[in-house]
Amino acid sequence: MLYLDSSGGGWGPILMPAFVATGSNPRKAVGTVEFTEPIISVATFVTFGLIIGFESFLWSIVLPMVIGGIILSPVAAYVCSKIPRRLLGILVGL
Prior knowledge:
Layout: H1 2-6, H2 11-21, H3 26-52, H4 59-82, H5 85-93
């Protein structure tokens, strides 16, 4: 599960709806998660690298995920700024 969290597979889908369900503005929820995901990913990447060795990584999978995250984080922020708050809350919930 920790690997999924570090790659973004568990962090966003769990936290965003939790933030929205507790009354947070959906834009702030998405922004907070999008801001913290790279920090969590880097920390986990370094930890796994030091524990199991960087040579154990499947770089053909890791690099495209990193590049995609770098490209799509600003896109997600822009899209969230254009979607109405209520619709964004519904989309996050789905």
